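Q: Predict the assembly, please.
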Amino acid sequence: MHFDWAFFLFLMLLCGMALFNLYSASYPPKGWGSPPYLKQSYLFLMGFTAVLFILSFDYNELHIWNYPFYLFIIVLLVAAYFMGESAGGAQRWIDLGFFRLQPSEPAKLMLVVTLASYYSRKEVLDGYSIKQLITPIVLTAIPFLLILMQPDLGTALMLGIIFVSMTVFVKLRRSTYLILGGSGLFAVLFAWQKLLKPYQKQRVQTFLNPENDPMGHGYQVMQSKIAVGSGGKFGKGYLEGTQGHLHFLPERHTDFAFSVWCEEWGFFGSLFFLGVYFLLLLWGLRVAMYAKDRFGMLLAYGVVMLIFWQALINILMILGLLPVVGIPLPLVSYGGSSLLTTLMALGILMNVRMRRFQPGRGNHQEDA
Amino acid sequence: MKDKRSFFTELEEINEHDDSALDMLRPRIILAAALIIGFAVLIFCRLWFLQISNSDEYINKAYNNRVRISTLAAPRGHILDRNGIPLVTNRPSFNVLLIREDSKNDEHLLKKLAGVLDVDVSQLWERIREASNIPLHIPIRLQEDIDWQTLAYLENHNHEFSGIRIEVTPRRVYHFGDLAAHVIGYLGSISKEELKKQSGGEYDGGDQVGKMGLEKLRDEVLRGEKGMSYSEVNARGFEQQLLKREDPLPGSEIHLTIDAKMQQMAEEMMNGEEKSGAVVVLEVNSGRVLTFASTPPVRLQEFIGGISQQNWNAYLNNIKTPLLNKTVQGLYPPGSTYKMITALAGLDNGIITPETAFYCPGYYRLGRRIYRCWKHSGHGAVDLKRAIAESCDVYFYQVGQQVGVDILAEYAKKFGLGQKTGMEIENEQDGLIPTRKWKRQRYNEKWHEGETLSIAIGQGFNLVTPLQMAVMTSMIANGGKNYRPQMVEKIIGPDGNIVEEIKPELIYELTGLEESLALIREGMVEVVHGKRGTARIARVEGLTIGGKTGTAQVVKIAVYKNMKEEDIPYKFRDHAWFTCFAPAENPEIAVTVLVEHGLHGSSGAAPIARAVLKTYFEDRLTREGQEKEK
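A: Predicted assembly structure:
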């Protein structure tokens, strides 16, 4: 076995802290349902079971399973759009009875796998031309548009970021860069003018000047900054944060969960947490570095980028450096779909790590 | 499947290229790591900025976020009468406050609240608009003094009313209704000007402050000191817990010199017949005020929480001028009550002796004019005592004429007429005692001899207040001592200690008048007890009273001269005076009654004085009565 115990223990530490924090962030629990931290604990168990399951296959199997998964996710996204549960004007969830699935979350991982698979199969050593990128662009655009229609701008943008991260990673022709860059810029301008809903524009504008709208969108950013800043050097102590517990901090157990940590543990606590978090990501890049094949490398890199960008956007938002977009902090924010997706992604990463010495493609018997 | 085969062939091809392809991509992983580390550094810097270098600011903000500082109104000091009977105390009242900062949905919330409070939504909006320039976290009062049912409903459904809080404030209770309303005064919300004028920041907007009477004059001791409460609130504005509380310090108690029973009797007598006027009772040897009534009264209840325009207009348009405190603001010719001054001036200047008699044929001729006595048939020969007892005008015309207006004025002033008494009360008027010099300055005219005759019997330019008349009566009774009228006896702090005790203040004492004053007093006793005295109606069994009636002409229009009194329009009827002291042997109190348009001192004013005197001497009178029965 080449199971990476160090990585696993690191991950357990991070997940432990996240759960610990969630207890505080959702305390006191409201309503009669099971409290978020308990629910999240079950999901951690489910997630780690999924990790073990993923580890039992060779990641190269994903080449085969990728397209059926892709279609399955697309069907779920369409289903979510037509019959999904509505929350805050957006249709994002499919109620599975025991679990409310948000298909846009696995869609992110699915895109990572899809692009990794595509770029590893269609290797172009002298750089991809724009023509050769049409397939990945289309593969990205379909879920992108479906999620945008929900509407969930944050998650849709995340797919775009994944596409750019992975496409820029493989070698492109110079002309391709120019065309991609140019059309990207054009798309942004076009989107701002024609596609963005007023409330979405509002968010961006509010971000630029939050004091203009202290009771509206700026409120969240301001309260989050107050939470983080008032944590000071050593924090207010576990369960002692006032911003969260007195409900000044909105969505404090979901998108703003990390604010609670910063408030209660202060500067050094936050550094410790982020230290663990970023070391895990860098370790993921090390996995990519020593992957035995292009697919493994692209997978590991893609998974790291998937988690990194979400984490970065979430943290910058919490620290008041980015507008409020609905991007969770992977592993830390409350939310089953995101947690399961992230753990599965890390499962794939660990899978790549485990099989770094095995030549050739996956062999079922070897692991069984 | 053919496709699948080629798919795997493809994969094998890729694997062959592996090493070189991977080597090419590895530097990009380093770049990605650099990117991650770069952002980590950015985050580090941001955390440093928020949590280290600027943490004080955010700690402060977090504190302000969660701590709502509210002031706790201090219970206002009670007002008691001389016997410790409470006149004004407090009860808790519940006000509905809105903290706009904590309120999420104004429109909907106010609609619902208006239903609960049973008021119009526009009324609530009005209150909010009034506060448009006040910071959002400062509560606005939407409704004052809600009832228990409303309070219970709001408390039980508080989760439905974000930003709505209930405030408990002490509210005035008037145990005797409008008793001594002009003295006590009322409270109102502090005005912008009053807020600006304050020096120590002791008032906040929305505070209740005294607007009239003692509530205003003694606001400083009555108001106490506000308390502060620091409570933790959540983002919806609901209080989570009390962090710290500094209890308010209640205001001090004011003990008045006023006797509630006498005051009540005076007001009942006046109001019973809807008389407009004033009743003043002074202790002659101290200047303490026992009764200080002005009618019709203001309805203090109507002023709580601000008087409505409608009620205010009703006050303004009332011909009986309830807003005027007639004890010190009402100016009336003293009428025959002034005759004591004329008599004194005559005696003291050697113009008359007690034995000097003048003949009264019912009129007096001066030059070409005839000046009438009120008794047209004439009094015949009258000496001083009789002149006072029967109020013979002709006698005083002659004394006055011989004394002259300036000396009359001198004596009037010696007895406190025509000048402020210096009592602690608002808007006290001077009145007017005319002199030759005054007329020249005021009208640039020569003084006419005939005018002196009018002055001598208390008509003409003379104007005095009922309080001045009471002071004059006291001075006659006590031998010439002018005490400053005093209404506040002592002030007792919330801890039970005396904050201030006000001792009687002798302003000055007239000397050399004892004999003359004794003569005057004799004459005044005759007024009540003499066979033909004008105020026999004021007699009280077992009590000797010295008094004087007076009728103050309002107009001199001949048209009304021969009309029946009831037919004269109210506003042209004469004012009725009665001023007296008792017991005559050893005077204790002076009672002055003025009834506006009350026609005659004897019938209009004396019965009221009698009732007040009976109340004061109640205990002694019954004792004597009991002795008599034995």
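The longest strand of chain B covers residues 86-98. The two ends of chain B are 140 Å apart (CA to CA).
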